[in-house]
Design a protein that fits this description.
Elements (H helix, E strand, L loop, with lengths): L1 E7 L9 H6 L11 E4 L2 H10 L10 E7 L6 E3 L2 H11 L6 H10 L4 E5 L7 E5 L10 E8 L9
Parallel strand pairs: 4-5
Antiparallel strand pairs: 1-3, 2-6, 3-7, 5-6
């Protein structure tokens, strides 16, 4: 299975989940490493745009293609869980505890979660603490630049 990330050049070889460990994310608290990936290149672009100031989009981006071993068991959190959380608490619903528990349990290498941007699309979280994390590999990378028409003025 292939998944995608768009990152600054300095992080193009990093599969440690260290950025998420430092700052936290929707599915993890600071201190808990998670590697966030997307099911498609276009979703990876949207996920970066929604988390980036439109005044500052890095100019040294790379699109990374990551291979997850084909026999990997993928745990899934359904859109119903996401929708219930968002409906109850708004877009800032806290799913961090769920993700933290998943990482710490090491029960699966990958957690499939719905994208908040497009709930019918999915992000794949990779647990760098799982014993099979060493089998995850980068199989391609290329420079990436957003089409200027996407940038808000």
């Amino acid at each position: 299975m292939q998944v995608y990330r768009i990152v600054k050049s300095t992080f193009m070889a990093d599969l440690s989940g260290n950025g998420a460990r430092l700052y936290g994310g929707r599915w993890n608290s600071p201190g808990v490493p998670v590697l966030y990936t997307a099911s498609s290149r276009s979703l990876a672009a949207l996920e970066l745009l929604v988390h980036t100031s439109h005044q500052y989009v890095p100019d040294d981006l790379y699109l990374i293609t990551i291979q997850i071993p084909e026999n990997t068991i993928i745990e899934t959190i359904g859109a119903d869980v996401l929708n219930a959380g968002v409906k109850k608490k708004g877009i800032a619903a806290d799913f961090q505890q769920m993700g933290d528990d998943w990482v710490k349990s090491r029960r699966s290498l990958v957690l499939k979660v719905p994208s908040v941007i497009i709930p019918e699309e999915h992000n794949y979280l990779i647990n760098p603490l799982h014993t099979n994390a060493i089998k995850v590999s980068i199989i391609a990378n290329r420079t990436f630049e957003f089409d200027k028409r996407l940038m808000l003025r």
